[in-house]
Write a structure and sequence with these properties.
With 102 residues, the chain is mainly beta. It has a domain of 57 residues. The chain has 1 helix and 3 strands; from the N terminus they run ββαβ.
Amino acid sequence: MAEPIEIAAPLVTIDVAGAVANPGVYALPGDSRVIDAIKAAGNSLTGTDLSDLNLARIIRDGEQIYVSPTEKTKIPAGRKFATKKATPRGPLNINRATAKQL
């Protein structure tokens, strides 16, 4: 009798940024959720409000998860956060742009 073959789940690579302990790029199993990505980055900083994120959403390869700091977030010395996200440079394809990009 043949041994069953175990198939490994594909990995997704994501960027976790903002008010997390260890922002950076992480490789997680393909069925991971936003909460798993935040935990991989050492959890959110004390005082951070996660209510604007859907923590149960399945993450996609190549995406960035940004945890926004609040006025109550305890920010470690020497860390700074962008107050505004950078705008994309170059032309924008209006047929493929999201409502937020427009």
